[in-house]
Specification:
With 359 residues, the protein is an alpha/beta fold. Helix content is 60%, strand content 9%. Among the domains are: 98 residues; 54 residues, no CATH class. Strands 1-5-4-3-2 form a five-stranded mixed beta sheet. The protein has a two-stranded antiparallel sheet with strand order 6-7.
């Protein structure tokens, strides 16, 4: 689905013991709906770029898996096997998508240590550097995984006897005749990968990737806060439209996604009310945060940069002059005025005149 720009809070209090300690070992201490999860595995440290990432599964996802398997019971053992294969394939595709976010986030200097698998997809908890370019790279890496898998599945289908009509088709109205379970699995994997890519990149709503891409591109041009305001307001509108469409078509998953997306956008909107305005250039695209406080301009001009450099130079000269005067006064106190050279007398005279004029 996308990534959340937050981290799990896995700290535990020092007085945990007994039942509480055992409970916290399995359930995360981060309060809220997403804490209802169980650990699946941790990527071994020897895996380049992904070592140490913890993968968890939400309790509702487990219930969905059980429900899907029970629903496949009327088709016999073959139905069980195919349903299990489809759910396993979808799980793997979503997990690879989230790993793409995590890997990119780490490569650009951010932190990514947790992935949550839940009924509506996956959430990678990433913290890229607070700049638009690393954030955009982190976001695009997830769909990039699905994009890179398209030619792989296409080649596999063509090599196993499928035609181009089974490789390139309308995802809203697929019409494929399956030649056995193997062919059905391969085409279904291709179809699910395509839907993941298209849906993530066409629904501009947090936490979907399209919503983050929109915000990050706008961030580049108009600054972080203004880009977030536009993105979350658009996301709220998309969530309402998606919810209405889900109700009209009776698709519970779309309704659930709309509710979750709407809640995420609303929560982001509340957070924005506590954020100070920053000009568009406050987040330097190469050097991190480097804005000037209380500057209302949209972008620093050459004149503004030159004025700042001149001010810094003036302050440095003042510090140097004060140091020279202090040294001269110390010399007078120790050896008297007669010990001063002509240059020192001139320096002291100039400083006295400057102070008299109030400069």
């Amino acid at each position: 689905m996308g990534y959340e720009d937050r981290r799990y809070d896995e700290g535990r209090s020092s007085d945990d013991s007994g039942i509480v300690a055992k409970f916290r070992r399995y359930f995360q201490t981060r309060a809220g709906f997403f804490s209802w999860s169980l650990p699946l595995f941790t990527v071994p440290q020897r895996v380049p770029g992904l070592g140490g990432i913890r993968v968890r599964i939400h309790l509702l996802y487990i219930l969905v898996i059980v429900g899907e398997l029970l629903g496949a019971g009327d088709r016999g053992s073959a139905g069980y096997a195919f349903a299990a294969a489809m759910m396993g394939t979808l799980f793997l595709l979503v997990l690879l998508h989230e790993f793409g976010h995590c890997l990119a986030c780490r490569l650009v200097g951010g932190q990514a240590d947790d992935v949550l698998m839940w009924p509506l997809g996956g959430l990678a908890y990433c913290q890229p550097p607070m700049r638009w370019k690393p954030a955009l790279i982190t976001t695009l890496a997830g769909p990039g995984v699905n994009l890179s898998l398209l030619p792989v599945f296409a080649a596999a289908l063509l090599l196993t006897g499928s035609g181009w009509s089974e490789v390139v088709f309308n995802p809203l109205r697929p019409n494929v005749a399956f030649a056995g379970y193997g062919h059905a699995w391969l085409w279904s994997a291709h179809y699910m990968n395509l839907v993941l890519l298209v849906f993530n990149m066409l629904v501009p709503m947090f936490p979907m990737d399209a919503g983050r891409v929109l915000q990050e591109v706008l961030w580049w041009r108009i600054g972080y806060k203004r880009s977030m305001v536009i993105a979350v307001n658009l996301g709220l509108g998309v969530a309402i439209a998606l919810g209405v469409f889900g109700i009209a078509t009776g698709q519970m998953r779309l309704i659930s996604l709309a509710l979750f997306g709407g809640f995420t956008c609303w929560n982001e909107r509340r957070n924005l009310t506590m954020m100070e305005d920053q000009p568009a250039w406050a987040f330097d695209t190469d050097k991190g945060y480097g804005g000037f406080e209380n500057d209302a301009s949209d972008r620093p001009t050459k004149a503004a940069r030159k004025a700042q450099q001149q001010e810094e130079k003036r302050r440095a000269n003042e510090r140097e002059s004060r140091a020279k005067v202090d040294a001269i006064l110390d010399k007078i106190q120790a050896h008297g005025v007669q010990s001063l050279s002509q240059a020192e007398k001139n320096t002291l005279k100039a400083a006295t005149e400057k102070q008299r004029r109030g400069l």
